[in-house]
Amino acid sequence: MGFAIFMAILPNSNDLHGIVPDKIQHMAAFASLAILGTLAYPRIPRLLLALGLVVVGGLIEVVQMIPALHRDAEWGDLFADTFAVALILVCMQFVLKALPNR
Q1: What pLDDT is attached to residue 3?
Q2: Which residues, other chains included, contact 38 with Cβ-Cβ below 8 Å and sequence gap of 6+?
Q3: Would residue 95 count as lying in a domain?
Q4: Domain range enclosing 51
Q5: Can you tell me the distance from the alpha carbon of 55 to that of 70, in angstroms, rounded to the nearest whole number?
Q6: Would residue 1 count as lying in a domain?
Q7: Cα–Cα distance between 19 and 55 in angstroms, integer?
Q8: Distance of alpha carbon 49 from alpha carbon 57, whole angstroms
Q9: What pTM did the predictor assign?
Q10: pLDDT at residue number 71
Q11: What is the number of structural domains in the chain?
Q12: How many CB atoms lie within 10 A of CB 100?
């Protein structure tokens, strides 16, 4: 998670804009965090995990409002984060049920 936050608040970072659309980058980052969170903390309720990840996404957007960072905070980014988290957590429910007991 630290890497995702670090990359999100770097001033005017040279990321993959133009190669990979911004919303896809957001969705990939938060989908990865949702997968890792589900596997790392299997006893935490999925709704709590989702809430935590969405709060992190929201805080990232708030930090990106700082003018010195030259970043763009967008509601669409938070929506992309939330959509990815919700989709992955639903999918992980099915995946984990299909796996034999670990």
Answers
A1: 78
A2: 46, 49, 88, 89, 92, 96
A3: yes
A4: 44-101
A5: 22
A6: no
A7: 27
A8: 12
A9: 0.84
A10: 83
A11: 1
A12: 4
Q: How many residues in the chain?
A: 102
CA separation (Å) from 27 to 1, 87, 99?
14, 10, 25
Query: pLDDT per position in the chain (102 positions), as tens?
Result: 787 777 777 776 655 566 778 889 899 999 999 999 999 999 999 999 999 999 999 999 999 898 888 888 899 999 999 999 999 999 999 998 888 875
- Pair of tokens at residue 28: 């990939």
Question: Does any domain span residue 6?
Answer: no
Tokens 């790392």 — which residue? 40
SS (H, E, C) 26-78: HHHHHHHHHHHHHHHCCCCCHHHHHHHHHHHHHHHHHHCCCHHHCCCCCHHHH
Q: Give 18's DSSP letter.
A: T
